[in-house]
Amino acid sequence: MSREKILEILREHKEDLKKKYGVVRIAIFGSRARGDYKDDSDLDVLVELEKPIGLFEFTHLAYEIEDLVGVPVDIATPAMINKPILKESVMEDLIYV
């Protein structure tokens, strides 16, 4: 699925994700954001939340995004990306919905 289609789907469902999970901002990064993905590449998603949520709810959020876009999803919050080199790499690719 193309980057544009993924962004379109996430835009369409952003308000619902906010109501269900408190998603304030959502962005994609990695190979699908850069456009150099392979057919079996996952989608890397960064979510900013109104407040912390539990692991069970966080897992449901990841699965819901996966169901929406139809590709495997790796999901993270800004707090999870705390190593400077990793943060720099992610920030270069970020595309906010």
How would you portray this structure in words?
Helix 1 (3-21) runs antiparallel to helix 3 (55-69). 49% of the residues lie in helices and 21% in strands. The chain has one domain: Beta Polymerase, domain 2 (2-Layer Sandwich), CATH 3.30.460. The model has no long low-confidence stretch (mean pLDDT 94). With 97 residues, the protein is of the alpha+beta class. It has helices spanning 3-21, 31-34, 55-69, 84-93, and strands at residues 23-29, 43-49, 73-76, 95-96. The protein has four helices and four strands, in the order H-E-H-E-H-E-H-E.
Q: Can I get a quick summary?
A:
The chain contains four helices and four strands. It has helices spanning 3-21, 31-34, 55-69, 84-93, and strands at 23-29, 43-49, 73-76, 95-96.
Classified in CATH, the superfamily is Beta Polymerase, domain 2
- Encode the helix/strand succession as letters: HEHEHEHE
Question: Mean of the pLDDT scores?
Answer: 94
SS summary, helix count: 4
Kindly report how far apart the N and C termini lie: 16 Å
What fraction strand? 15-25%
Q: What does the main sheet amount to? A: 4 strands, mixed
Question: What is the radius of gyration computed over CA atoms, rounded to a whole number of angstroms?
Answer: 13 Å
Shape: globular
Helix and strand topology:
Elements: H1 3-21, E1 23-29, H2 31-34, E2 43-49, H3 55-69, E3 73-76, H4 84-93, E4 95-96
Parallel strand pairs: 2-3
Antiparallel strand pairs: 1-2, 1-4
Helix pairs in contact: 1-3
List keywords for this structure.
Beta Polymerase, domain 2; alpha+beta; 97 residues; 4-stranded mixed sheet
